[in-house]
Amino acid sequence: MWNSADFVEIEKQNAGDKGVGVDFRQGNASALPLRDGTFDFVICSAAFKNFSKPLTAMQEMYRVLKPGGTALIIDMNRNCTKEDIEQEIERTGIKGFDRWFVKLSFQTVLRSGAYTGEELEALIADTDFAGHEIKKGGIGFQVWMYKK
Prior knowledge:
By secondary structure, the protein is α+β, with helices and mostly antiparallel strands. It is built from 5 helices and 4 strands, in the order H-E-H-E-H-H-H-E-E.
């Protein structure tokens, strides 16, 4: 079974193989091991639906952003349709068993854990972000949030 420490090690190795200098750290999205105002931009891709404390994770994103910074969450939309999922799988070109497995994963576990636009709006309303945009497309959302 893989855990987040395994993935951090894999990514360290991948970055090293490509000669890219990255400071990888393992942490909890609800208690980021970082100083306030560290980043201009924070991105969370395909993970937000898995957080046990989503509001706290959003507040942590805000905390570690510099003034004027932007946070971006990219994740699945629970209200996506079977047709949206089929189009996404077609777009990727996945074939055979992988196609079946990904489609089943999207239609069951991943979609059921995802948020609706309304739920994301409610979470953002409880943060200090100065503004936001939610862009829907395909099977997911791009949630852009801006710090004053």
